[in-house]
Amino acid sequence: MTIDITGLPQELIVFCPSPLAELGAALHALSEPAHHPRLHAWTTTTAAALEPELADRLHEADFMWNSTRADILLPARPRETLTEELDDLDRLDDETFVGAALEISCNSKYKNGAPSPLVDERMRRRALDLAAARGPRQATVVERMLADPPGTRAWIRRLLEDCDEAFFADTWRRVSVQLAADARHKTELMRRKGLAEAVSAASSAMTLEEDERGSRIVVDKLVQGRTSAEGSGVTFLPTAFGWPHLFAPYAPGWHPVVQYPVPARDLGGAAATEDVKLRLEAIAHPMRMRLCRSLARSSHTTSELADAYNITAPEVSRHLAVMKKAGLITTQRRGRYVLHQLDVSVVARLGSDFLESVLR
Known about the structure:
Elements: E1 2-4, E2 13-15, H1 19-31, H2 40-49, H3 52-60, H4 82-90, H5 94-101, H6 121-134, H7 136-147, H8 149-193, H9 195-202, E3 206-211, E4 214-219, E5 226-228, E6 234-239, E7 257-261, H10 273-284, H11 286-297, H12 302-309, H13 313-325, E8 329-334, E9 337-342, H14 344-350, H15 352-359
Helix pairs in contact: 1-8, 2-14, 2-15, 4-8, 6-7, 7-8, 8-9, 10-13, 12-13
């Protein structure tokens, strides 16, 4: 896949993180966890914590990020916040938004462009047929989008905002620093050593080719496509969730965007060796392992745990003290009650097999 950048000023080539693009990558990882073994702990933890109603809505809309990634989820002009990027989506006209959202209906025509299913009856039928093949719930969403574009667009925005509230805001806080640092590094590399160095540093699958015909960025993918950055520019979006994918939309009329994976890093941050030792010793005790089963599902008081496991409240308190010292549980006071809950994100970093066993 090639992006023609002949004559493009370097200032129009931008490396910048995007919260919306990262949310799209995270949603893809949730819907296709087998693609992302490095994210197994995160996908397991996050999927287990989703409210059933939100999980159902994500399933209905997953045609936008499952087997492909809708171009609307890869902003050409990233903003500081997800809200700002969603505001930009709201400014797209219905035909553009729906056509890009329903890329399932035009994959075979993607490189040449295809009319929006809102204005072309053949594309409308194709979109409905392909949506039906993905399942009745997805088909219902596509039918609703074609019948009521404004209402469905609002539904999609609420869905993404609910994801932000449920899990993504916390995840973004943890990964955005790394992504911003990577973008700054690539920008500085481009300034000091040139675009070729910056592009190859972003991904070994990308190269800069220059000859008498001009300059182009070549993305090594099993697809054939060409696009031009003339009059727009190129945007590179780093992602912590992307590996092994390298996305490069090339639909006619769209600003070229490349989403590239940054070097893998634990999404939860690295723990000190002594902390890991304390945590492993804490969960090795048979009773504390059993307590984890309850604490992983919801918060409990000491008395509730004592009653559930037929042990005394002081015994429970001693076990909880060990777990709290290891950083495995959180506590909160609600009136005269103290509630304890497992910090699932911490446990997930110890090992997904253990987490799956307590959540099974």
